[in-house]
Amino acid sequence: MLVDAGEHWHERPLFANHLWWHAALRAWHHGDVDRAFEIVDAQLTSTTAFGLCDTTAMVWRADLAGHETGERWVALADAWSAVVDVHHSAFVDVHAAVVAATVEGAFADDFWHGLAARTDTTPASENDRTFTEVVRPFGDLVRSWRAGGSHRLGRDAHEALADKLWHVGGSVVQRQVMHDTLHAIGAAP
Known about the structure:
Layout: H1 13-29, H2 33-43, H3 49-64, H4 72-81, H5 90-102, H6 106-119, H7 126-146, H8 155-164, H9 172-185
């Protein structure tokens, strides 16, 4: 039913990308990884920050599950490098952080420098606290894990981070990949 309505989504291009993400996620949950990637490659084409979050989330899920992702991470890093809307939305930055932790290069360097600058001040708002208490620790953890470094959190620190993931926004389904990442890293309680 969802995909059958896809021909009408072009009328709402900003929403269409996210609807295709739902279709890819449905294929994923039914075990049809090939179909999920077909949708990712053909339909998740938005280059906006939130559009890239959809694509990043699907590639991220596949990577965590051990599926071959090909050059998708590199393509994502290239796409994210053109996005200027980072370091304003915690939800966006968590997704961008995973790409920056996965693909070294100019985007990663710029992203980590910008995130450090964003969080090296005293938090003045709830958004600032979310960046300081959730986005940066999560990003640093994933970055260390991807680099093969020390990535274990103590049980209390892990629980504190896991309990705060909701602050980044998004739905429970959208945040599940963040929790799955903590489990994959081995930091889960």
